[in-house]
Amino acid sequence: MNLDFLTRKFENRLKYPFLIWKDDSYSYGWLLQQIREFQKTPAYSEVKPGCPVLLEADFSPKAVALFLALIQKAAILIPLSQGTGEAKKKESLEIAKPCLRFSLNAQDELEVSPFSHEPHFPYYEELKKRKHPGLVLFSSGSTGKIKAAVHDFAGILEKFKTPRHDFITIAFLLFDHIGGIDTLFYALSNGSLLVTLETRDPELVAQTIQKYQVEVLPVTPSFLNLLILSGAYQRYSLSSLKYITYGTELMPEITLQKLKNIFPNVILFQKYGTTEVGTLRSKSESSDSLWVKVGGEGYQTRVVDGMLEIKADSAMLGYLNAPSPFTSGGWFQTGDLVEVKGEYVKFLGRASELINVGGQKVYPAEVENIIQQVVNVKEVTVYGEKNPLLGQIVCAQVSTNQAEEPEQVAEKIQIFCRQKLESYKVPVKVLVTSCLQTSDRFKKKRIG
Fold it and tell me: CATH classification of 169-351 is 1.20.1200.10, yes or no?
């Protein structure tokens, strides 16, 4: 595939850095040269258009160069982060059936090995017929089985042909996540600098922002809660920040209010996207509001029975291992429940996570937002548990900042909730745990 719109940008910025990796800087000139070097290798010559290729890597100089080189070859890319667990990796490979494996280790050294797979998926054949690169991303939400979404990469890249703003950005979302890929190509298409992280510890993130004068921080609400609790924002100068963007899960109102007070001069706005349709353009009503406009060129949105549906030019072709989630008219049923106010929507939660208490609907996020206000609560996850009389009851799993008797924690949470919520929304059970309630992708681990 022709990537002239990117190579022209790179050629105009040969001496400018495109990536900070392990405190070393790599220029756009280096990137162009590395792409050419990959294209001369025997392994690259083995890649045929339409060949599904596993790219096992994290954000690194050679990973970016190899990613672009494989797009130019019209390969079908299957990115997997190096931190992916063995069980998930095995399941993902069994589903996607790559022909070749390109693996970059922690030192950015490349290893190439073949697979014995001979995949004959209709979506792979369609991409080969179009002579377009493909992208396979894995999604299971917070719970559930892995699903493999197949994209025509040409459609994903289309929106990046429109020049936008040049910002120094942290690569927080992972290499194999639609948000991480969006971050990467936004930076590349605008000749910007992307700063990588060795870990996503709040202390290191804050230190990195100060050191490299980072302007955009694209993260998850769970990480922002940890950043607040850690106090790292007080130990480093984060004055360079212009935008904090958040997405992949719901933002608690209490966390957003705290962020607005801590970062009064930073624009906070919500991003929205899915593995199946990509990342939409969005605009928050204000920095302290959860109301957001989503859509933009190439996207249509509508709400049916309280659920957001999206029609996108860049929508996936389909799943490799699951039925189509699209209506006959091409609308993707997101599973996200929303409230509507004019052009704006407010996300209430996933339909699959809704708790039904005797016919009454309870949104976990609403209860979590209240519990998060209780003194000494660090993290909280609200979920439903089966009950023979009511169908389900509301339960909460919490962790605390300081050690406290579990019975005392449960009692004060229930008392506080009774003051703020209808009785059927008050947690019947409160489990105090020391376990982390966020995943390795800094999303809340949903129970159920």
Answer: no
